[in-house]
Structure formats: C-alpha cells, structure tokens
Amino acid sequence: MKYVVIGPTYPYRGGISHYTTLLIQNLRKKHEVKLYSYVRQYPAFLFPGRTDKDPSQLPLRAECEYLVDPVNPLTWLKAFWRVRQDHPDALILQWWVPYWTPTLAAISFLVRAFTSVKILYICHDIVPPDGGGPFDRHLARFVLRRGDSFIVHSRDSLNRLRQMLPKDDVHVTVHPTYDMFNTGHRRGKAEAQARLGVGGNTVLFFGFVRVYKGLEYLLQALPEVLRHQDVHLVVAGEFWIPESYYRGFIPDESVAKRIKIVNRYIPNEEVPDYFAAADVVVFPYTAGSQSGAVQLAYGFGKPVIVTDAGGIADVVEDGRTGLVVPAKNSRALAEAIIRYFQDGLGDKFAAEIEKKEQRSLFAWERLVELIEKLSAGSE
Questions:
Q1: Rounded CA gap, 336 and 225, in Å?
Q2: 348 and 368 within one domain
Q3: How far is it, in rounded angstroms, from Cα 309 to Cα 122?
Q4: 90 with 121: CB under 8 angstroms?
Q5: In the β-sheet with 304-307, what is the strand arrangement from edge to edge?
Q6: Structure pTM?
Q7: Is the terminal CB of the chain with fewer CB neighbours within 10 Å at N or C?
Q8: 324 domain-assigned
Q9: Domain identity same for 232 and 168
Q10: Domain-located, residue 94
C-alpha cells in the first residue's frame, strides 16, 4: 500500500517525534511511505520547555521532507497538493494538542473535499491531560470530525472520542513498545548506578515533569517508603513546572539525600543508563489517556508502578507486569513501592514482561496491521 504521514520527527524531540519515526520505519518494511514533517513546531512563547530540538548525539531518524509550517497557511495548501499528487491509500495524521487545530483542520478539509484519499487520525490524547476544558474539546471535535477512521491507544481515549464523535470509526490498540534505545552495548546495574551516583534499590521517575504527572505524590510517599526500605529515587526529565515547587514536598535533608534530580531532557544515548540503574519505574499520574514512557520502561524489561488515572494502567497487568494504585494517593503509592521491594517482585514481573506473548502484544506490527485493515476498508 501507499501512505502519506504528516507529523514530527528529528530534529524535534519527545515521545510524539519518536512515535512518528518508529511508525514510519515499521510501515516502510512493507509499504511505500512519504513523511512530510514540520519546518518548525511551537513558537517560544507557547512552549514551556527550553527547546523543542533533540540534543541527542544518536538521534532517531526517518527520511522525510520538511514541508509544513504551522504559522504559514501556504504550506498547508502545499501539503494538500502533495497528498493529491501522491494519491496514497491513506493519509495518516496525528492529534495530541489543540495548537495543531488550524493546520490539521485545513489539510484534512481540503483532502476530504477534493480527493478520495482516506484520512486516518492517530489520537495520542483527545484533549490535553493538563487541560481538557470545553474549548479544548470543541477544537478537537472541529478537527477530528474530518477524519474517516481513528486509532487510539487506551479505553479512556476510546470513550472520550466516541462521546465526541459517536458514529465514527474508532479503534483501540495498545501503544507499541519504545525499544529503540535497548540495542547495542548496555551497562549493568552497578555500572549504570555508579555513573548516576546512586546505589542499592532504585526507583525511577522518567520524562517531562508536568502537572498531570503527579510527581508530588511520589515525593510525599518517599518518607514512608524510607521508614521501611532503603531506596534511592531518580527523577530524570525536564521540569515544565518550577523545580522549587516540587522540592517543597521534600521534608528534610535526610530524605533529600535519597533523591537525585536531573532537570533536563535526557538524550537518547543516556537513556539506557537510567533504566539499567532502576529496579522499578513509577508513574504517579493524576490524568492522561496513555503513556509512551510506560512502553519505554517495558522496552527495557522494567516493571512499573502506575496509577489508575485515565488509560495509564491499560497496559499493566496488576500483579504480573507491575502494580496499579489509586491516583492522588501517596500512602497507597508508598505501600506499593514497599511491597515491590519487600516481596521481591522485580524478577517475577520482569520475566512476565519478557514473555513472547507480551512482546507480541506490544509489537509495532500490530499497529501496522490495523492501519492496513482500515486503509483497505475492513475491520
């Protein structure tokens, strides 16, 4: 089949860029695929991070043409003409934040009005986890009603989208594993911990620090954990909220000594060390339809402790590949971390994650097969 994909890739950083690149790489194993990426993404005054560019020395790349500029409508028209000339079996667009409303609405309107090309939307979030007000829902509906079929990665997103577009063709499949960093030489736990300056039992919080990530609940849980179990907590990721706010949840110096904060974007070549050093990865989210970071942990064979917020727990088998606790409950989170170490659950959970059926469940081939079916007009 023939596909056109519009979305971010290198030099842009983050989960959506990685997702697009891996999707392209896997689609190209069987199909002809063109990727039209963005000339630029967010203006500085709208972007809360330091930069949207990937600093990695070993970036994840996909061959593409940088074509679409979100602040230049002429490039939206150019993208439409390219799609019309390419005449693919499907145009694949991605939706995650309302910022892309004008660009994606214009492209999908033109494609739907003047071609027979099917429009397939992959929805990472229906509304932003740290937003989600009526206006955000209005913008999402304004864009997505122009799609023919939709793929989501959680039941939470499935329910939200079906409420918004009850008659539309919506399909849910698990978010594939991010295993692109888990290749080549990997340091052992002791060596990785030495490089990070930690030791012993280690808990990892990984990814951008945003309001809905719930880091404060993990910090509030840590004193109780330390009363029962000696652990280190590593917080690795760029803070989009002032770091000082979270440090206010650390009660004293004795707890602070057990916490290592790395307030920056972690480049690709450093990612393996953080997961090699960790015994378990914790996601104390208060909202969110799904998390690529959970699949990143699985890519390294690491068990997880997650909350039941949104669709975060959809890919976690409680008591088999991780533990699930109520959201916004630091006591329950502390009890889960204590139980994880005291009951020695790490090896058991890791073995489950590595099983063939688990690897197959999270394979990119499953997503590609669903795209093929939707493009061919069958379910």
A1: 9
A2: no
A3: 21
A4: no
A5: 259-262, 231-236, 201-206, 280-283, 304-307, 322-325
A6: 0.92
A7: C
A8: yes
A9: no
A10: yes
DSSP for 275-306, written as a single string: HHH-SEEEE--SS-S--HHHHHHHHTT--EEE
Q: Are residues 126 and 109 in the same domain?
A: yes
Q: Are residues 216 and 90 in the same domain?
A: no
Kindly give, in sequence order, each residue whose CB lies less than 8 Å from that of residue 154, ignoring residues fewer than 6 positions away. Answer: 172, 175, 289, 290, 310, 311, 312, 314
Residue 248: pLDDT over 50: yes
State how far the Cα of 38 lies from the Cα of 132, in Å rounded to an integer.
25
Mean pLDDT of the chain: 93
49-84 residue pLDDT tens: 888 999 999 899 999 999 999 999 999 999 999 999
Terminal Cα distance for the chain, rounded: 16
Report the distance separating Cα 283 and Cα 311, nearest Å: 12
Query: In whole angstroms, what is the distance from residue 233 CA to residue 32 CA?
Result: 45
Beta partners for 318?
322
In a domain, residue 168? The reply is yes
CA pseudo-torsion sign 67, 70, 71, 74: positive
Of 197, 322, 266, the C-alpha closest to 49 is: 266
Structure tokens at 352: 């489950």
Residues of the domain holding 115: 2-176+363-376
Residues 346 and 368 in one domain: no
What is residue 39's three-state secondary structure?
coil
Which of the four pLDDT bands, split at 50, 70 and 90, describes residue 251? very high
Same-domain status, 306 and 367: no
Distance between CA 88 and CA 32 in Å, rounded? Answer: 9
Q: Is 271 exposed, middle or buried (0-12, 13-18, 19+ CB in 10 A)?
A: buried
Q: Which of 106, 115, 112, 98 is nearest to 78 (CA)?
A: 106
> Residue 58 is part of a domain; what is its CATH number?
3.40.50.2000
- Residues 132 and 362: their CA atoms lie apart, in Å, by 28
Question: What secondary structure does DSSP assign to 299-325, as a single string?
Answer: HTT--EEEE-STTGGGG--BTTTEEEE
| 89 plus 196 within the same structural domain | no
The structural domain count of the chain equals: 2
